[in-house]
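> call design_seq(struct)
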């Protein structure tokens, strides 16, 4: 009787082992089949590198706040400019190399004083046009290191290039052109799509 119980117990143990092993093997096979389908629904690295558009929720962007996102491996700044910030743009134009954005550094719909679709929202690549360094957002007015004429903007500490709050370059600095405004469009009041062209005009 004990021997019979021992045999049954061994058979039961083997049966459980075989069921478990089969389940694991089946699960691995299913995962192997499912993985390509999951991957096919995600943007490929090639698509990202080619500039797949990036959707940004700007509903939490506060006045005066700078948001940094990535598109095509580059940092893109989204700045919500205050009325005081916007007021500096005209004042600084005599100090700028290309105040009217005549050089092709932005889409046609951003070829205006604010270099934007919505006056308060600046969308610009956060890259200095001199050697590709990353400037610093300096919204302080007349700091000691930048002088009494500084009304806020972007300063590149690497070689001293300066840009106003529309990304327009100052005269007599190493950077040759204004900062680049990437293609972008508003899908709604609070949703911005970077990497897609807008049909809106300034």
């Amino acid at each position: 009787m004990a021997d019979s119980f021992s045999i049954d117990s061994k058979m039961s143990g083997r049966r459980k082992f075989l069921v478990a092993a089969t389940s694991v093997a089946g699960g691995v096979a299913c995962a192997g089949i499912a993985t390509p389908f999951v991957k096919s629904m995600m943007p490929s690295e090639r698509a990202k590198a080619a500039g797949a558009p990036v959707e940004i929720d700007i509903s939490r962007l506060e006045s005066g706040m700078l948001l940094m996102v990535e598109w095509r491996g580059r940092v893109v700044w989204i700045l919500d400019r205050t009325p005081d910030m916007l007021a500096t743009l005209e004042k600084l134009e005599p100090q700028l190399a290309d105040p009217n954005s005549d050089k092709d550094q932005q889409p046609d719909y951003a070829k205006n004083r604010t270099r934007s679709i919505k006056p308060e929202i600046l969308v610009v690549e956060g890259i200095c046009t001199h050697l590709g360094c990353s400037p610093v957002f300096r919204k302080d007015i007349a700091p000691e290191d930048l002088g009494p004429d500084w009304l806020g903007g972007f300063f590149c500490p690497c070689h001293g290039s300066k840009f106003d709050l529309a990304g327009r370059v100052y005269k007599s600095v190493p950077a040759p052109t204004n900062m680049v405004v990437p293609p972008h469009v508003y899908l709604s009041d609070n949703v911005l799509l970077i990497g897609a062209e807008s049909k809106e005009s300034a």
